[in-house]
């Protein structure tokens, strides 16, 4: 048994890839600079040295070709794990993902499987240039045939990636890049939650905050501040966006009577809209206030000097909490 009392999310993903590759020789890692460099965030550091260039493959700068090649390899029995270097670079591969990868299983009437995992470092907060801070999760969650997940801590980063790799469905695995160096506990022998199960990470009685990926930590900070003001906040880490575990959210809202959904992506047509609609349908007679949403603005991601104004932070989420509690 290996217990890391403090391990970064980036290191947990590295350990997860290593465990998956050791367990199954058909697992391959491929992407731009994933080999000799170890990835721009060093998430794949050391893997090519230990597993060789045939299993950790440095690819050309061609996202459509990378994903298309991974689809072909999956059809031949491999389990490729593709890294898209930055969120904004995924769009050249969008056609391959939504037209081929997502539909291959249905097109073949279930006779073929395409176990491809696409790792995407996503969202902002790192002071990057254009195309390096996007949150495209809603685009992919809208596409039937894809599973969409995003961890918020080291333990989930480790287990959810292995679960995604071991499954037979294509999975988009969104990694919150500004949390790469956040540290938390990891027990590599623990029993993980199901891949698409949401988790209540803090219990409360006055209001539910639902979030995923980079915003979970913000919600934790909000709950701490609210507690100093005598407000009891429950936090649901969604973990998965396709499918969404509405049952866990519903159970929480039936207890608290209020829900605020928080994500970094724009509020307009974002994941929060679907959650708000579903929970309103399911919990209409339990709600004490409208379901509120907090997220980015419906605008291109701004230059880095303005991203603190764009990103949902402590004050913006606390304002939504206060508005919900005022009803």
From TrEMBL:
- The Transketolase-like pyrimidine-binding domain covers 7-182
InterPro entries (alphabetical): THDP-binding, Transketo_C/PFOR_II, Transketolase-like_Pyr-bd, Transketolase_C
Which SUPFAM superfamilies does the record cross-reference, listed alphabetically?
Answer: Thiamin diphosphate-binding fold (THDP-binding), TK C-terminal domain-like
- What are the record keywords, sorted? Oxidoreductase
Name of this chain's protein: 3-methyl-2-oxobutanoate dehydrogenase (2-methylpropanoyl-transferring)
Cofactor(s) needed, names only, are: thiamine diphosphate
The catalytic activity of this protein is classed by the Enzyme Commission as 1.2.4.4
Which residue ranges run through the membrane?
Answer: none
Question: Entry's Pfam families?
Answer: Transket_pyr, Transketolase_C
GO MF term list: oxidoreductase activity
Main EC class the enzyme belongs to: oxidoreductase
Q: Which residues form the signal peptide?
A: none
Question: What species is given as this protein's source?
Answer: Streptomyces mooreae
């Amino acid at each position: 048994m290996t217990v890391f009392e403090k391990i970064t999310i980036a290191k947990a993903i590295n350990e997860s890839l290593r465990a998956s590759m050791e367990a199954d020789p058909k697992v391959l890692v491929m992407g731009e600079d994933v080999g000799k460099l170890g990835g721009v965030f060093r998430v794949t550091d050391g893997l090519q040295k230990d597993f060789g260039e045939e299993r950790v493959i440095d690819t050309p700068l061609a996202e459509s070709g990378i994903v298309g090649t991974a689809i072909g390899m999956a059809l031949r029995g491999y389990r490729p794990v593709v890294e898209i270097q930055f969120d904004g670079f995924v769009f050249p591969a969008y056609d391959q993902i939504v037209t081929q990868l997502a539909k291959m299983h249905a097109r073949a009437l279930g006779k073929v499987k395409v176990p491809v995992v696409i790792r995407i470092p996503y969202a902002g907060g790192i002071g990057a240039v254009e195309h390096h801070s996007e949150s495209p999760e809603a685009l992919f969650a809208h596409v039937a045939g894809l599973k969409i997940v995003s961890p918020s801590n080291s333990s989930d980063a480790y287990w959810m990636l292995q679960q995604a790799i071991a499954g037979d469905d294509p999975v988009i695995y969104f990694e919150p890049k500004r949390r790469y160096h956040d540290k938390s506990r990891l027990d590599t022998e623990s029993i993980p939650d199901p891949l698409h199960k949401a988790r209540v990470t803090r219990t409360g009685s006055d209001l539910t905050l639902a979030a995923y990926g980079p915003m979970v930590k913000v919600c934790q900070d909000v709950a701490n501040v609210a507690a100093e003001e005598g407000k009891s906040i429950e936090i649901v880490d969604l973990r998965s966006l396709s499918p969404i575990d509405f049952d866990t959210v519903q159970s929480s809202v039936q207890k608290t009577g209020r829900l605020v959904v928080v994500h970094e992506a724009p509020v307009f047509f974002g994941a929060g809209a679907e959650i708000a609609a579903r929970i309103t349908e399911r919990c209409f007679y339990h709600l004490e206030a409208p379901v509120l949403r907090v997220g980015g603005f419906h605008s291109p991601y701004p230059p880095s000097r303005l991203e603190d104004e764009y990103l949902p932070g402590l004050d913006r989420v606390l304002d939504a909490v206060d508005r919900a509690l005022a009803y």
